[in-house]
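B., you asked whether I could sanity-check this one before it goes into the benchmark set. Here's the sequence:
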Amino acid sequence: MNQIALPLAWPADEQGEFFIVDSNARAVRMLEHWATWPVRTALLAGPPRSGRSLLGRIFAARSGGAVIDDADRADEEELFHAWNRAQEERRPLLLIAAALPPAWPVALPDLRSRLAASPAATIGPPEDALVAALFEHGFARRHLDARPDLIAWLTARTGRSHAAVMETIDRLDQAALAGRRRLTIPLARETLDGDPAANKRSDQAS
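And here's what the prediction gave me:
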């Protein structure tokens, strides 16, 4: 599994790492090759907590371009003018949204046609390798000792979404702190028992 190296000028308190796997590799390639875009604007879609905003910040730092996050909730007239300005100034613009059109409904016809002409990529649900890496990295950032057997146990039982992984880390962090206990499979089982998000795959993994 590869990682994007963060820019040298990255703030010291920025806790971001982006792991490159099959589910996001196409998005990474699109942003790496921004100079070859047919227009100066591209669309990046992804579910919550998928790293889409971090990827946008890395893109902006490397390209000198602009980023509009949550573009699907922005004013359409403003997006229209931003799209045109990017072409005029030859400065790349990345629009980040939860989904691509037509799942992102765009009412303004001129904006809709411009977005249709823009390159686009979607970050998909995380595969097992990424789920395991997110657990390992998330626990390490909180200075929690998560053994390989626990990582494997959680990976087999956690729903396939970035948010589910992060929510599971939060719950186990709180449980370990409250009980002053080590992270173990028994603690995870006690904490997550009956949680549909955390046990979505438990039937297959038991």
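One thing to flag: Confidence is low (pLDDT under 50) at residues 5-15, 202-206. Otherwise nothing jumped out at me.
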